[in-house]
């Protein structure tokens, strides 16, 4: 039985999704940030006859994310009906094994389909004590423009504004570590969607003239240490094999393929 969830269901939802805090970073993060009964967010649950959750579906704005502990328990056809009847579908994303069960039942044209690797780092894994560089600084929220300028120079489709980054930093769901040279920010690593138990690493970049000098790796190590001190599991997306090898050397292991389908 599928029904819309309310604040009364919070503990059951978090227990269900909390078994995999990295994989459910966006679902848990949105619940922590907005609650379950916010205009921008809707949650549904599919229950068995004993009242236990089989799967859940989150809508944040036009993005839908499904989750099930057992992919075989996810009813793709029923969830596709819920998504289409909402009239708000812009993107369906999540673990590929779950998203692929829903996509065939959605009767809308697909604009784009993308996949990337989703990786996480075990909290108990030791961290190399020898940082390549020690002059890694933490960005203040009012300095958000600096890191956005760097990202825009390296990423062709980066959309976050300085105002949004600053707001997220002030809310405590994002942070940035960076390296400066000649009073210029040349490398940085940020987090996004931080929850009590996990954080997404994003925006790993270095100015072209400063590449291959260990700057981004130093920022990553600083970020990992900070998250580990707060018992937050770091996770990230990547679709570049070269970047994947760097992340693997730092202890990140692939979870599963993440799929994003735009309608």
From TrEMBL:
Give GO terms: molecular function aspect only: acyltransferase activity
Question: Top-level EC class, please?
Answer: transferase
Which PROSITE patterns does this one have? GNAT
Q: Which SUPFAM superfamilies match?
A: Acyl-CoA N-acyltransferases (Nat)
Species name:
Sporolactobacillus kofuensis
Its name, as the record gives it, is GNAT family N-acetyltransferase
The record's EC number reads 2.3.1.-
Keyword tags: Acyltransferase, Transferase
Pfam families for the chain: GNAT_acetyltran
């Amino acid at each position: 039985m599928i029904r819309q969830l309310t604040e009364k269901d919070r503990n059951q939802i978090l227990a269900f999704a909390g078994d995999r805090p990295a994989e459910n970073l966006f679902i848990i993060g949105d619940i922590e940030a907005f609650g379950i009964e916010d205009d921008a967010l809707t949650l549904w649950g599919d229950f068995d006859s004993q009242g236990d959750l089989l799967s859940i579906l989150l809508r944040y704005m036009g993005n839908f994310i499904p989750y099930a502990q057992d992919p075989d328990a996810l009813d793709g056809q029923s969830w596709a009906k819920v998504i289409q009847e909402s009239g708000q579908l812009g993107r369906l994303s999540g673990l590929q094994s779950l998203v692929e069960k829903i996509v065939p039942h959605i009767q809308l044209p697909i604009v784009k389909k993308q996949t990337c690797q989703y990786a996480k780092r075990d909290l108990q894994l030791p961290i190399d004590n020898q940082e390549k560089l020690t002059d890694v600084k933490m960005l203040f929220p009012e300095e958000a423009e600096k890191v956005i300028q760097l990202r825009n120079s390296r990423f062709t489709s980066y959309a976050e504004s300085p105002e949004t980054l600053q707001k997220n930093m002030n809310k405590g769901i994002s942070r940035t570590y960076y390296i400066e040279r000649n009073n210029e920010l040349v490398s940085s690593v940020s987090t996004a969607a931080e929850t009590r138990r996990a954080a997404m690493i994003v925006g790993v970049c270095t100015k072209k003239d400063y590449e291959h000098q260990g700057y981004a790796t130093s920022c990553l190590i600083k970020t990992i240490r900070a998250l580990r001190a707060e018992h937050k599991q770091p996770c990230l997306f990547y679709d570049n094999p070269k970047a994947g090898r760097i992340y693997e050397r730092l202890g990140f292991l692939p979870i599963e393929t993440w799929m994003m389908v735009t309608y």
